[in-house]
Amino acid sequence: MQFLMDRAESQRQVAAEPVALIDRKLARRALENLIANAVKYSPRGQPVDIEARVGERGIEIDVADRGPGIPDELKGTMFEKFGSVEVSRGEARRGYGLGLHLVKLAAEAHGGGVSVRDREGGGSIFRLVLPQMSG
């Protein structure tokens, strides 16, 4: 993902050596979408933080930005097909509204999920959860 580094700095932290049984291409595409969105909506020069850890529901991957954030009224529908935060704000659409829907489908196909919450100090944290391999 070197092309992303031209736009923003990234910081990553891995708290453990998590192992998941996943479709590599599908999971990678979902994660790339979250990272690309974080870079796209972050102010130039602001880092995108990526953290992976083993949590209660499985492997949790957080992608955090310092962008404009997500209005509360959109958090429940933004992962739906053709969902668009820009359109709801009256801005020009930057995409097709399929990226976050793909992330949701990929997460659910693995038995996991995706969510978003506000980041303290501004921005958003998207969490991708994939079940951890047991054993």
Tally the structural domains: 1
Low-pLDDT stretches: 1-7
Fraction in beta strands:
15-25%
User: Could you name the CATH class?
Assistant: Alpha Beta
Oligomerization state of this entry?
A: single chain
CATH architecture label name: 2-Layer Sandwich
Shape: globular
Radius of gyration: 14 Å
Mean pLDDT: 81
Report how far apart the termini are. 32 Å
Q: Any idea of the CATH topology?
A: Heat Shock Protein 90
Strand order of the largest sheet: 1-2-3-5-4
Descriptive overview:
- Mean pLDDT is about 80; it is low at about 1-5.
- It is built from four helices and five strands.
- The chain is globular, with a radius of gyration of 14 Å.
- A hairpin with a 2-residue loop joins strand 2 and strand 3.
- With about 140 residues, the protein is α+β, with helices and mostly antiparallel strands.
- Helix content is about 25%, strand content about 25%.
- Helix 2 (about 25-40) packs antiparallel against helix 4 (about 100-110).
- Strands 1-2-3-5-4 form a five-stranded mixed sheet, covered by helices on one side.
- The chain starts with a helix and ends in a 5-residue tail after the last strand.
Write the layout of secondary structure elements.
Blueprint: H1 2-5, E1 10-14, H2 24-41, E2 48-55, E3 58-64, H3 85-88, H4 99-109, E4 113-118, E5 124-130
Parallel strand pairs: 1-2
Antiparallel strand pairs: 2-3, 3-5, 4-5
Helix pairs in contact: 2-4
